[in-house]
Amino acid sequence: MLSESRAGETSGFQNHVAEIKKRAMIFFDNVSKFYNHNSVALKDVTLKINPKEFVSVVGSSGAGKTTFLKLLIREEEPSRGKIIFDGAEVGELDRRRLHLLRRRIGTIFQDYKLLSSKTAYENVAFAMEASGKSDEEIDEDVPQSLEIVGLKDKMHNFPHQLSGGEKQRVAIARAIVNRPDVILADEPTGNLDPINTWEIIKLLQKINELGTTVVLASHDKEVINMIGKRVVVLDKGMVVSDKENGKYLV
Amino acid sequence: MTTLKRILKTGFLNFKRNGWLSAATVMVMVLSLFVLGNLIFLSAFASTILAEFGSKIDVSVYFASDAPEENIFAVKKDLESHPDVAQVQYVSRDEALQVFRARHKDEELIGQALEELGENPLQASLNIRAKNPAQYAAISEFLSGKKYPVIDKINYFENKLVIERLSTILNSVRGGGSVLVLVLSIIAILVSVNTIRMAIYTMREEIGIMRLVGAARWFIRGPFLVSGVLYGASAAILTVLIFFPLVWLISPRLILLMPSFDLFQYFLMNLLEFSAILFGTGILIGVFSSFLAVRKYLDI
Predict the structure, then answer these.
(1) pLDDT per position as a tens digit, B227-265
(2) Distance CA B86, CA B279 (A)
(3) SS3 of residue B93 by DSSP
(4) B58-159, CATH topology level
């Protein structure tokens, strides 16, 4: 009898956990990542990010921010723990079907990662072509998303003909064009001057207001404090603080 | 359908936009295919020469002066059924005399001697040509083993050393030539393969970006394979175009050296096959090396 009721309790608890995981957009379940014996990138990170949230992940360089994002799109594999994206475990995906996950997550990088042999328009269109959208959709959506980032007049320029801020805006247009569930931004303003930085942050806020989950990794104190949303602080691979309306003090 | 169209379009576009890289790759492939083409000519030329030399060797069987013709024909029949024999030619005593007279028609002394002799001193003979010079020994053994009473002598045993030497030379030229052709082809192919791999190496970051942006592996690989086909095809076209004037220029000079081999004629006769080999090789190298090179960078 006793053991039965315990089993019932446990399953009730498990149901509860499962429920949390299901409702979460992103769930890190006790995730660790070691590159080798001496270098710990992430240690026992458990974190839940809800749909439509705007989360800033902060910390000095080497704190594990980039690893955190790379694990999410499975550019890296976790050493321990599970990562759940929208109810499905990322690690269980077949490597050949990874692109299906990545189409649902728009990623923005510090070094833009634009295709240098393609124009701004083609860079954005590539993401749509790759996910098998029709030519009509592409003709309609690409100019629209370039307009959102304010680059419609330069859409036929190649990346080397664009400034840093402009390149980052192309990258944002590419990230949003497939209407992903989540936008990951890894130090998107790291190479930009203050004015461009604000433009990019405002864009990310606007995208978030339209209903997309945004995860921003940054070490820029001013930027984080200006946003005034949830802040998760990483230090030596561990979550040391997680606050709504947080500030980045150190 | 849309995807296939996109892959083709991107492949063509990449080929065009990476102009210098494509041109350099195609040039290296032209060099490789040029070497291959020359090897084809070389082996055709060599086999003509070898065949010519081979046909200069023969063995004659001489018959006793009183041997009846039907006995000689019996030997001829036996020889023709021998698997190593290519051809047997009968030369009667009268024919032998005619040939002899024709050859020495300017030498009065010999004519006089023949007159004084009164009768035909020459023997009837069978001229034997083997399929391969190395087989003369076996054929001669076969003949002497049968102990035909009509046979007077077989000149193989007199010329044995020369025939054997020639045969060894022909064989080693053939063997060495094949090794040379093989080695040079491998070098030419390796150079092309590595050039394409280098060209794709410069694109490795782009390949990674495409993966991170959510492109499927074959969607990324496809255009590279298309470019590979374009490299191979354009290199083959250029190579054939280069060969035309070159062969036309060299051919008359080569004929002076080797009258039985008309290079230009050979080129025109085999143009279709020749082009097919160059196209096939070029495209195969292009696609194969692109496939290998891209695969390495897709694992992200």
Answers:
(1) 999 999 999 999 999 999 999 998 888 888 878 788 888
(2) 37
(3) helix
(4) Alpha-Beta Plaits (3.30.70)
